Amino acid sequence: MTDDERYLRRALSLAARGRGETNPNPMVGCVVVNKGRVVGEGYHARAGGPHAEIVALRQAGERARGATLYVNLEPCAHHGRTGPCADAVVAAGIARVVAAMGDPNRAVNGRGFARLRRGGVGVDRGRLEAEARALNVRFEIAAGQRRPFVLLKVAMTLDGRIATASGDSRWITSAAQRREARALRRLHDAVVVGIETVLADDPRLLPQPRTRRPFTRVVLDTRLRLPPRGRLAASARRNPVVVVTSSRSAARRRALEARGVRVIVVASRGDRVSLTATLAALYRLGLWSLMVEGGGEVLGAFVRERRFDQLALFRGPLLLGGRGSRAAFGGDDPRRMADALRLVPGLPPRGASYELWYPER
Q1: What's the whole-model pTM score?
Q2: Is residue 45 within 8 Å of 51, Cβ to Cβ?
Q3: Among this protein's residues, is 53 annotated catalytic?
Q4: Which one of 53, 196, 293, 297 is the catalytic residue?
Q5: Structure confidence by residue, pLDDT tens digits, 221-239
């Protein structure tokens, strides 16, 4: 392993410490090395806080002059909630920057590297790019394609069922798997469910452990049936709740908004809200990464319209059988095998109990 790879891996390791708190920003780590010694390092700990480069440069101080800076993502060159990192790198006297990948955000997208070069800083990019992309896949898709990244999460029996005919679903997976699923929520800006799931379970839908940043619960509710006195509405002022609906009922809307729920009206598609309109509206709200948890009709709609990027599949060691038990993915029956969506396997985190799949592109 070369020194460049070793220090970049350290930067990636540092970046991962911000997991779940930097959203919708990427996870970034930075290491400053001068004459073979680490003189500063840091990571982006939370959205709105100092970027990794700033933390590392502050720690390095004067020792940054003539040093090499290692970072997993191109330093930003625009003004957001913080100033441009590329300017700070130039001002610190860094001689060389080694970055794993460019920033897909159109506000950066090469401008950071260009600013560094204009300031006399050498730039080396592309080392460990695959690892860097895997770490920030949610940010890369949202920033590059200007739409939310979508993960479908499914807990099902070995024969693909999520509930009995009567709707009983407690519990398909183990307590450990359910804890893992709640932790998976932390990687996203919001969790998305259909109204039938809310009416059946009255869930809170919060991540565990909790995030310091706001975590949004989204309900797809075509006819605006969310109970104003349910647990979601009751907690909306502490943790945001967004209802996406096609209903124009002013009375129902007022009752929910009085509880702190945000109601967004979008076009319908058949008897459901349009997924295209829903995803566009959530992206405009700043929700760049969504974890869709069901129920079966909602999951089926995302699959049918090919509106997802990853599938996290939790299997419980059960067989339900029967004609009436509920399938994990609802909707109309496909007529041909050619209508099936082909998936390719992914690599879940080490020790994960779920399978990770991607739609074949």
Answers
A1: 0.89
A2: no
A3: yes
A4: 53
A5: 999 999 999 999 999 999 9
